[in-house]
């Protein structure tokens, strides 16, 4: 186990919205929300111990199996966003986590992203069990995040209500 306390939630990823990310509606295009969330995921993987060096040395990786994005409020060019990360659950082969994107200055919720990732042996490109070092780190993160409420958007289902 790592001796550093685990923040609840994890909060470190910031980005400034650049002109190339703005669409014809004058706000950040949906694809770039996913890009920002993906960069926050890379930082989460590093925190879990799934660094690029670890993945290369073991020829392992993590694949996203499912992702849900909710766009709550727009962000625009030159806005700075902050992404927080909460571990919702895990087992020997999967981990489930949740990102929230906030406008860094005004602190409103801009978007959320819920993800389920699979731990993959790249030699055979199949899901495999995570080693004890990763499982121990996930346990440490989950213990810290157990005090957090389940995000409102977690597990949401998309549908149109019938009239």
- The fraction of residues assigned to DSSP E strands is 25-35%
Strand tally, please? 6
Low-pLDDT runs of 5+ residues are: none
Please state the CA-atom Rg, rounded to the nearest Å: 17 Å
Structure description:
This protein is an alpha+beta fold and 163 residues long. Helices cover 25% and strands 34% of the residues. Strands 1, 2, 3, 4, 5 and 6 form a six-stranded antiparallel beta sheet that branches. Strand 5 and strand 6 (126-127) form a beta hairpin. It is globular and about 45 Å long.
A few lines on this structure:
This protein is α+β, with helices and mostly antiparallel strands and 163 residues long. It is built from three helices and six strands, in the order βααβββββα.
Features:
163 residues, globular, alpha+beta, six-stranded antiparallel β-sheet
Give me the secondary-structure topology.
Layout (H helix, E strand, L loop, with lengths): L9 E7 L13 H19 L3 H7 L1 E12 L8 E11 L3 E10 L5 E13 L4 E2 L4 H14 L18
Antiparallel strand pairs: 1-3, 2-5, 3-4, 4-5, 5-6
């Amino acid at each position: 186990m790592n001796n550093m306390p685990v923040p609840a939630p994890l909060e470190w990823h910031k980005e400034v919205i650049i002109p190339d990310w703005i669409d014809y509606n004058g706000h950040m295009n949906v694809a770039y929300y996913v890009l920002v969330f993906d960069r926050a995921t890379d930082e989460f993987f590093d925190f879990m111990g799934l660094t690029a060096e670890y993945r290369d040395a073991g020829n392992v990786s993590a694949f996203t199996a499912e992702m849900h994005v909710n766009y709550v409020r727009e962000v625009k060019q030159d806005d700075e966003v902050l992404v927080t990360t909460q571990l919702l659950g895990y087992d020997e082969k999967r981990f489930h986590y949740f990102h929230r994107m906030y406008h860094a200055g005004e602190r409103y919720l801009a978007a959320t992203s819920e993800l389920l990732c699979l731990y993959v042996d790249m030699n055979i490109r199949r899901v495999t069990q995570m080693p004890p070092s990763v499982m121990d780190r996930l346990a440490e993160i989950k213990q810290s995040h157990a005090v957090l409420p389940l995000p409102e958007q977690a597990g949401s289902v998309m549908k149109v209500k019938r009239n």
